[in-house]
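cron nightly-structures :: item 1 of 1
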Amino acid sequence: MNKENIEKMLYNYKKLDSWIDDCEKELQQLRDRISVHYSVGISTISDMPHGTGTSDNTYSAVEKIDKLREIYVVRCNKLAKDISQLYKQKELVEYILPRLKPLMQDIVKYRYFQNLVWKDIYIHNESIDESTWHKANTKLFSDINRLIGEKKTGI
């Protein structure tokens, strides 16, 4: 994973729970809509006698509801896939973070989770010089890549 993707993953971590909640709410709303719209059912109405025009209009309306249901199902599948990917991202960060050295954990916490600039990080931790922070930050990405590789191979 390149540096930009790692940074994106770390910056997005604090937003993941909110994104998961949003997806799950939309998924539930779609399920409710499917349930409401599809409770009518085409087979029941299509057995009505033809000739009055009412059954044909009703059948057409139910057929549109059935097509709408298909659209909802496609969206539900997309949301389910998104939720799964978001949980995988969250799990990956939660796997990586405790395996990093304490200084690197601090970098992730301050720089990516709290969005602090380097100047503010130095102020919080005056006992550590700037070059130490930057060296740790540079090594951070290679360590994260190593941990991602370990997770994928199950080491």
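cron nightly-structures :: done
Helices lie at 3-38, 42-46, 54-96, 102-113, 118-124, 130-153.
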